[in-house]
Amino acid sequence: MGGRDFRVAFLGPLGTYSHQAAYDKFGTAVEYHESRTIAEVFDAVASNIVHAGVVPQENSIFGGVIETYDKLRQPNVGFVRGDVVLEVQHCLLVRRGVKAEDITCIKSHEQALGQCRGFLAQNFSSASLEKVASTAAAAQAVLTSNDCAAICSRLCATIFDGLEILFEGIQDRSCNFTRFFILSPTQQSELPPSSSPIGSETRSLVRLSSKEMCISQVLAALNMLVSRLDRRPQLESSGLSQDVYFAELTKGDSDSPWILEVSQALQRVRASGGKAEMLGIW
């Protein structure tokens, strides 16, 4: 199976930064499937409607994406097979032929408007700012306008015929990155070919929990290099301090097979009275 036979789900609509991340990872060789929510991306993957899904995991400014971790607390929602980091570069798009001096209104998602506040104050101080549902919706809205501009991803200029980029990189902060997880139905599922380089680090994502043990005891039993640790309440929790932890493990210098190392670590946690499940490996 190859080429257009592959389908990839992302948080829509077309032109969002989730779409940009998926496009950066898989390019034009796949068919893209719009989802209305992050949960719908997971559901499309788990039900084999698509071969892969791309979901946001963390933004460098706004932190972890709770909806993604809440889905990962549930069983049989897909398997993490990799990640992709997108540098968020806001662009100012207009209908082809519209000049900067013509612009009286700028549309975008509330967060994008806020992240470009300095640029807008300096260059379009007299323009009105209009909040819309998404950056992609802003791009669609200016397709028929001769005096409006949209703040959105550069991909929108490719998707929506008739738009052109007036300014690139207009965000006030240059360190705005979003990390996305790449999902597949199972660990063995065939993934679409990637058009971007694969990271050199070998990692796993595991879910840890215990009602009786503190996290330090669970990590001691795990006895592996933990590069990241996130916490959410247990789904069946009846009180405070009953949590599930998501640990990212990074392979050290050992020559033994990585999946064997992780499996043995999870067995140690279970033998000590904790709960552990592998959610991804890449």
TrEMBL record:
Residue intervals of the Prephenate dehydratase domain: 7-185
Gene3D superfamilies named among the record's database cross-references: Periplasmic binding protein-like II
GO cellular component term of the entry, any: cytoplasm
UniProt keyword Repeat present: no
Coiled coil (UniProt feature): none
Record's keyword terms, sorted: Amino-acid biosynthesis, Aromatic amino acid biosynthesis, Lyase, Phenylalanine biosynthesis
Pfam families recorded: PDT (PF00800)
Keyword Amino-acid biosynthesis: yes
EC number: 4.2.1.51
CDD domains: PBP2_PDT_like
InterPro entries linked: Chor_mutase/pphenate_deHydtase, Preph_deHydtase
Enzyme class: lyase
One Gene Ontology term from the biological process aspect of the record: L-phenylalanine biosynthetic process
The protein's annotated pathway: Amino-acid biosynthesis; L-phenylalanine biosynthesis; phenylpyruvate from prephenate: step 1/1
Gene Ontology molecular function, alphabetical: prephenate dehydratase activity
Protein's name in the database: prephenate dehydratase
Organism: Favolaschia claudopus
